[in-house]
Amino acid sequence: MSDSPPSSKVSPPRFAGVLGGGLRLTWSFVKRRPWSFALAVSGAVLFVSAIVASAVVVGRITDVLIIPVLQDGESIDATFWQAIGLILGVAVWKSAGITLRRAAAGWLQYGTRSDARKRLIHHQLRLDLAWYDRRSTGDLLSVSEVDTNQGTFVLAPLPYATGSFFLLIGTVALVAAMDPILGLIIFVGLVVIVGIDIHGAFRTFQPFVGVQDERGVVGDIAHESIDGALTVKALGRGEEETERFAVSARRLRDKIIAVNSVWVGYRAVVESLPSVLTVALLVIGVVRLASGAVTAGDLVTVAYLLSLMMMPISLLGFVIWEMAHSLAAWRRVQEVLDADDLVEHGDTVATAPGTGGSVASTHVSFGYSEGESVLADVDLTIPGGKTVAVVGPTGSGKSTLVLLLARLWDPVSGSITLDGRDLRDFAPAELAGEVALVSQESFLFDDTIEGNITLGLDIPREDVIEAARLAGAERFIEELEYGYDTRIGERGTSLSGGQRQRVALARALVRRPRVLVLDDATSAVDPSVEMEILRGLRRSDLPSTVVIVAYRRSSIALADAVVLIEDGRVVAEGTHDELMESIPRYVRILSAYEDDAAVHEVDGGHR
Predict the structure, then answer these.
(1) How far apart are the C-alpha atoms of 357 and 388, rounded to whole Å?
(2) Which DSSP symbol is given to 127?
(3) Treating both helix axes as pointing N-terminal to C-terminal, what angle do 238-290 and 296-337 enclose, rounded to 10 degrees?
(4) Is 32 left (phi over 0), alpha (psi -120 to 50) or beta?
(5) CB 212 within 8 A of CB 134
(6) How far is CA 383 from CA 329, 368, 546, 560, 565, in A?
(7) Helices 78-124 and 158-178 sit at what angle, rounded to 10 degrees?
(8) Which of 290, 317, 542, 597 has the fewest CB atoms nearer than 10 Å to its CB?
């Protein structure tokens, strides 16, 4: 367990790299949902054009209504009601723009976020198990939740900022048309403000990368603490685990404060500049008014525009900052999406159920890491429809072998075939239609019993019941309050270990696999129940070849053949009786199994 964040793979960027990377990231999002972006920008343009129109209307009302009434004493006539109509029309115009922009921007942001998470899950499920061994669950959860949130956060204000950009262009053009000098002042002021925002975003990019990395560490520690709650409580390590989490949480707090301190400093400067710009424009505008270069209405229009531009200017700067922060977060997402440890597939399709499949391995060698040897030159043939027990001492490679048979890993060298077809040639998901693996650690979902057995497949209830009967689960399921409709909680927490194993076995059996692989899949049930389950499998019409990693002598004796593995090699094959008579090591291993089982019985037995 590590309490420090992983070293970031992000090299310090160049100044232009942050802005360019943020723009490219934003554009990649927009390309995926162009219509929602176009609608949101259309709403924003409606809104900002209404702002410009309102400034023109106010200036025009000043010249043709307010000044004549106040200075010349003219009476209020139809012009007043025309002015009211114009103001109301602009208000409706602005409201329509706000509604369209907000609705489409939400569609853009949350749709993109959902797309990103689906891409992440889809890609991760195509990667091999070696990749998962190198990544922590908590960090991957942080990528899927925190980093996708932050990575797509820029999309919420983006349409408004795009409209604001057009507003700023329109403002500069409008003011320049009234008076080139005032237009030049506004242009220079906007360039200075945007330049400061870009520089601030660059300054906080690398620190924000550290923030996102630390968030991953916090998520990892939280996941470990919750997932290992039983161990933490049993060993009385609650305070130590709390402190371990607190240390990382404090590091995250300090990094966020450091980033925000820089952000606040820059924003304090940037947010004061529009006011300075407004004062400068008014002072110079009065001088220009006195010289006759502009009218009073023109000056009111400029002042009104500047007052309305405060929010768009701030928002434009906010988007620049968010592009940099989204880029920092998205690089962690992209790191997962760029992972190329993909499981290669062919185009072989599954054979319809009906007969047990013949399995063969040829010169198979395997190690979980480079230079490691778990299996070495394994040659093995399992005839279709037979039951074969795999036996060997702890660490001999039994579980590794059955994982290869289900193609959860691929051999480093050699090949494994099913009816002469290399497992690597099967199309995606096709092999799962022929081979079913049930491991000792049975993972169940927070769903009903039936939902855990079918896993979303449309399987008749009578087939579910038959699979549960073969798995020895029918009796305890019927005793539950809601039977097959009983929800069993996360990881099947409301069931015992033996019950979970039997539900997992039923999940495999209901698919009527041609090859059923049991990796100590009944270790948590009583020996008599295990015998009943295995005998039931042999008597049933299930069209399966059964490969079982077994430890109990009575269960092993039920197999048609036994394969003895030691040090990653097949050292003996034959029936149980043949190996008992000719292989002393086999006898010693079974005796060791029984001694170990007796110790467990004394310590409390099986659930």
Answers:
(1) 13
(2) B
(3) 150
(4) alpha
(5) no
(6) 52, 28, 10, 10, 18
(7) 140
(8) 290
Q: Write the DSSP assignment of 143-204 as a string of letters.
A: IIIIIHHHHTGGGTTHHHHHHHHHHHHHHHHHHHHH-HHHHHHHHHHHHHHHHHHHHHHHHH
The pLDDT, as a whole number, for residue 9 is: 46
Q: Tell me the C-alpha to C-alpha distance, in Å, between residue 193 and each of 189, 310, 317, 325.
A: 6, 12, 8, 19
Amino acid symbol at 494: S
* Angle at which helices 238-290 and 180-227 cross, to 10°: 170
357 burial level (CB within 10 Å; 0-12, 13-18, 19+): buried
Which ranges constitute the DSSP H helices of 383-473?
A: 398-405, 449-454, 461-470
H or E element, residue 349: none
In this structure, the dihedral spanned by the alpha carbons of residues 477, 482, 485 and 488, taken in order and rounded to 10 degrees, is -70
Q: What is the rounded end-to-end Cα distance, in angstroms, of the chain?
A: 30
How far from 27 is each of 154, 311, 320, 338, CA to CA, in Å? 11, 24, 14, 19
* Helix 34-61 / helix 15-32 crossing angle, nearest 10 deg: 110
Please report how the helices 527-539 and 497-509 are oriented relative to each other, as an axis angle in degrees rounded to 10. 10
Q: Please, which residues have CB within 8 angstroms of residue 236's CB and are 6 or more apart in sequence?
A: none
What CA–CA distance (Å, rounded) separates 579 from 12? 64
* Residues 40 and 105: beta-carbon distance below 8 Å: yes
The pLDDT tens digits for 336-385 are: 898 888 888 888 888 777 778 889 999 999 988 887 889 998 999 998 88
Radius of gyration of the chain (CA): 35
Query: For residue 310, how far is the Cα from the chain centroid?
Result: 37
**Neighbouring C-alpha atoms within 13 Å toward the C-beta of 345:** 15
The residues facing 422 across adjacent strands are 417
Examine the pLDDT at 11 and tell me if it is beyond 60: no
Q: How far is CA 211 from the centre of its chain?
A: 18
- The tens digit of pLDDT for each residue in 17-34 reads 677 787 888 888 999 999
Q: For residue 215, count other CB atoms closer than 10 A to its CB.
A: 24
What amino acid is encoded at 425 in this protein?
D
The greatest distance separating any two alpha carbons of the chain, rounded to the nearest whole angstrom, comes to 124
Residue type, 66: I
pTM, to two decimals: 0.73
Between 226 and 447, residue with greater pLDDT = 447
Give the separation between CA 395 and CA 409, rounded to whole angstroms: 17
User: HSE on the CB side for 236, CA within 13 Å?
Assistant: 0
Give tens-digit pLDDT for 49-62: 787 777 677 767 76
Residue type, 367: G
Using CA atoms, how far apart are residues 395 and 368, in angstroms rounded to an integer?
Answer: 13
**Residue appearing with tokens 């009967």:** 469
Site of tokens 């507003």: 167
Residue 473 near residue 506, CB atoms below 8 Å? yes
CA distance 16 to 77: 58
